[in-house]
Amino acid sequence: xxxxxxxxxxxxxxxxxxxxxxxxxxxxxxxxxxxxxxxxxxxxxxxxxxxxxxxxxxxxxxxxxxxxxxxxxxxxxxxxxxxxxxxxxxxxxxxxxxxxxxxxxxxxxxxxxxxxxxxxxxxxxxxxxxxxxxxxxxxxxxxxxxxxxxxxxxxxxxxxxxxxxxxxxxxxxxxxxxxxxxx
Length: 183
Fold this sequence. Notes:
Structural class: mainly alpha
Shape: elongated
Helix content: 55-70%
Distance between the termini: 134 Å
Number of helices: 7
Low-confidence stretches: none
Order of helices and strands: HHHHHHH
């Protein structure tokens, strides 16, 4: 036990650092990896929202929007503001108000507010004007989506029995007598 009394605090610190150092380094690396994964998921949500902001009925848009409360969860002020903006957008979307031009504009404004908060949180310097207008959306996509909506509404109305298919007989087929019509 004589050797034990000869250990200096510096020697004990070296032994402690030698044993605990690698464990702490691995834990620090794991913590950094988890942070990076969270940041990557948040950036992917933002990327998907940006890429589909002109196609709000797309599955990709809806999935990204629904992931916000989970991936941006937290008590930091910025995260709370993002979740509040998400809730406002969601509540407006689910309101039973009529789908007027004013309602549609408010929906867009709320979405741009949400997108702007997320972009600031992630370190992007997009203005609200950029988020609103710097977007490529071919007229053909808009027309296609509008046509699909008209078809969907028509089919729903037909299947509910609210409308019927318009039928008009333009020509009545004439049947020839059996035997070819000659005697």
